[in-house]
Amino acid sequence: MFPPRSHICPPRLLPPTGGQVTSSVEDELMHGTNTGTTSRWISSLLTGIPAISFGTLPIFARLAYAAGATPTTVLLLRFALAALIMVGVMRVRSIPFPRGPALLGLVLMGGVGYVG
User: Keywords for this entry (predicted)?
Assistant: First the structure.
């Protein structure tokens, strides 16, 4: 039905296959092992939830502005909520916080790329 993964992604770009996979969902997402409906549902959810969230931003921004919020307040709350969710996911999955050059790169992408 679908071409083999090696035709989609050159071998040098494939994720490493060694190591322990913590769940079958991660295995499906990282290695494409399941061609059934489960991975399609997961893909749909992982695509649909951000799309719906991004689409509702103007609606909530308009409601916030009507209630007297400033653009700075709306952006502060938006990024604070995103940061809380990200930190929660990182803690649950035991992902370490970036340090050194990786942290600097992320700060520059956010500060210069988004705001600049």
Answer: Membrane, Transmembrane, Transmembrane helix
